[in-house]
Design brief:
Layout (H helix, E strand, L loop, with lengths): L1 H21 L6 E7 L5 H11 L2 H6 L2 E6 L3 E6 L4 E2 L3 E2 L2 H6 L6 E6 L5 E5 L5 H9 L2 H10 L1
Amino acid sequence: MKFISTLLLFMTSFITVSQTLQKHQWNNRIAIVLSDGLSNPLFQKQITALTNEAAACMDRKLIIYQVLLNNWRLEDFTTETTKEWKSTFTLFDQFMGKSHHFKVVLIGLDGNLKEERTDFFEPQELFSIIDGMSMRKAALRHKK
């Protein structure tokens, strides 16, 4: 019985995570910045670098999920809001490898994984990858 309860809890959490990310499909690109701790220097450097590029993130419809071992929060440049930390373990488990302490994951508008890095991701390089995506190219053509 305990096994079934644990399994149901895990499945519910996984569905919630999928729904959390899926609600952004076709509306936002997602950068998930994961770390085993808030004090991780790479995590701090990555979050600072991206938040310093808020206008560029907003132009590319890029939102940031900050994910730690047991909680996460959303940095949404389009609404200029940072959500409060929420408890979860499944976002971390879904994207972070056992041997890593830091990771950045880029998910496109279509909801598919586009890039993964286990070291600092220069914002300009991230933007270059996004700018090379077909939907971004089409958006830029329509802007002209």
